[in-house]
Amino acid sequence: CLSPELIHLHQIKGKIVVVVDIFRASSTMVTALANGVQCILPVRDLEQCRAYKKEGWKIAGERNGQQADGFDLGNSPLAYTNRQLSGEKIAMTTTNGTRAISLVQNEASEVLIGAFLNINALANYLKAMNNDILVVCAGWKGRFNVEDALFAGAFSMAIGRKHECDATLAMEALFQSSKNNLAGFLQKASHAKRLQNHHLEKDIDFCLTLNQYDEIVFLQNNLLKLK
Ligand code: MLT
């Protein structure tokens, strides 16, 4: 479990990478594809993403937790839950989540998207694999954030592999101590407070819902799709 900025490319090579950004990019990606979106193109740059509008893509852009100017969508998973965007292709850029994907996609053997929303389905899928698995926590602008670490701890426990990683041990303990009230534990977390300031409390609760979906989201030819 590492923050994108701490990763050296040799740590990624040949590994299965699970990218997680609980608030909210990976939660939104899983929700969108589970609700019929055809595919998601993660884009690092706002202007590059805007250009896809002319090619018939819906464009989703978020910076600092808010919808970016000139975009069809921000980064709320709740924008996709009643399948109103089913069949659409979405070009998406977010502050941290799409950036984390761009940092690992060329070296990883496979990139998957992790969220509490599909955590057991993802763990059950990866249990059968022998590869090393690296959980990449998107964090916030290069800094650690606690919700992604909680996912990493929960995911490690769900997949049940032996490990000798102190960071993983710490995150498992963190999840064990807070799993009965994740929202309460995260009230003081920086990104939860940022979303509360934007009156996005419903997003927080939805992103912390476990096993809402059984779908697995992976990257194929630079596009996020359902397995
Ligand atoms: C991100 O990618 O950093 C987050 O999803 C930001 C957000 O949507 O609040």
Could you describe the 3D structure shown?
Its cofactor is Mg(2+). Belongs to the ComB family. It comes from Cyclobacterium plantarum. This is Probable 2-phosphosulfolactate phosphatase. It catalyses: (2R)-O-phospho-3-sulfolactate + H2O = (2R)-3-sulfolactate + phosphate. With 227 residues, the chain is of the alpha/beta class. The protein contains ten helices and nine strands. The chain has helices at 9-12, 25-34, 46-51, 97-104, 119-127, 146-159, 166-178, 182-186, 190-197, 201-207; strands at 16-20, 39-42, 58-63, 66-67, 89-93, 110-114, 133-137, 217-220, 223-226. Strands 7-1-6-8-9 form a five-stranded mixed beta sheet, with helices on both faces. A four-stranded mixed beta sheet has the order 2-5-3-4. Helix 5 crosses helix 6 and helix 6 packs across helix 7. The longest helix is centred in the C-terminal third of the chain and has 14 residues, at 146-159. The two termini are 23 Å apart. The relative contact order is 0.22. It binds D-malate. D-malate binds at residues 21, 23-25, 62, 65, 75, 94-97, 138. D-malate is lined by residues 21, 23-25, 62, 65, 75, 94-97, 138.
